[in-house]
Amino acid sequence: MENKFSRRDFVTKTTLAAGILITGGFSGVTNISGIKKAFAAPHEKIGDEIMPHVNIKLWPGRSEDEKKRLAAAVVRDVVEITGCSERSVSVAIEDIPSDQWKEKVYDPEIKANEDILYKKPRYSM
Question: What is the pLDDT of residues 83-96, one digit of tens each?
């Protein structure tokens, strides 16, 4: 099985020392001044880059390590699929007790938004 490693993966996954920077994986950055701008303004939109935020709601019981691993996996997929940079993605994880799920999640976020759900649950309440 061939292991392909894109420039974006290289930039994202490689620790760069002494200020050396490989620019191939940065969207909207075409020169050194653009690179400086990208790092100087962490909340500024750069070029046509999107700024996704993912909000995950779970029943309590997952460890902090599991939540960190889940967030990292979501970030990897968002970066790969949307083409944005890792620094643009934010992930929130909120524990919702099962006895509050219908009131806080199912009714307002699932049932009320069925028309925009890309993955619908196989349960109803």
Answer: 999 999 999 999 99
